[in-house]
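Re: your question about AraC family transcriptional regulator

S., sorry for the slow reply, the queue was backed up all week. Below is exactly what I fed in.
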Amino acid sequence: MKIPDRGRHLDMEVFINRILNYRYHWHETKYEVTTVLRGRAIYSRGGEAVELGEDDLVVIEPLMGHASLALEKGTLTMTAYFDMAATAGLAEAGSILSFGIYRCDGTNRHEERFRLLRATVADIILSAIDTSPLARDALACHSGLLLPVLMAHFEPTSRPDSRRGELSPISASAIVDFLEAHYMDKVSLEALASYTGYNRTYLSTFFKTNTGLNFHDYLTRIRLKHSLSDLAYTDKQMTAIALDNGFSDLKTFTVVFKSNFHTTPSAYRQTVQGVEKAESVDSRILLDPHDPFVLAKLSSYSQRGLVS
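Result:
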């Protein structure tokens, strides 16, 4: 559910999500805070794979490729997104505010900073579904706490924003559409230059400026996203999946897949065989926050009585 901005430039969204098979994606301008409410899941992000259990959480920064895979049936998470515009003035010029590669697990899940972060997101959701007269004010209070909690407890630093610079007249979406249509081919910057009418050097700079990733990395992410779909929803042979998604051979596909998800394509396919899967690799399965288990869990995190 979207949280009303009320002039604070948070552009926040919160939801309860049911985790199934990998959904590989990244946010161009969003920070993400996700907590496991029930079950266990593998989170792959930024080339790292971690196993999270109940009450564990991760903080994910803009442009960080990530995916989650349920290890138990019925795994649920709560997630909050907020836009990096909320951090304007807090990071150095031309930089993004970085909270590091933070996670909590069985060794540290009871630390106060993680308790506060869980409580803050839970209270945002509880206030959003509250119908009492003061609910709107409580929602503004709790949603306004998320960034201060991160700033106070998660050692923020500044890292270069690779997208800095003036926007080009080329449409970034048109380039992304081209890659989505041709990711299975031997796509090159030269081919993209021919498509757009701009030279290779200009396009390389443009791509980094507008997506934050270099051309090859962005193309690889698209190929991985589609290969995950083939592994979960088709019975194609591994070599066919590799070639159909633009990888030069099965060995290259396996190396790239393992470096991102810390498992092999064949092992991932075995994991999702015979289990319930989302309708597509892009699907998000949302759960009503009024669900009795969810309400009880959020209430166990809540500190609303102390704040609102």
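The longest strand covers residues 30-38. The CA atoms of residues 127 and 139 lie 5 Å apart.

Happy to talk it through on Thursday.
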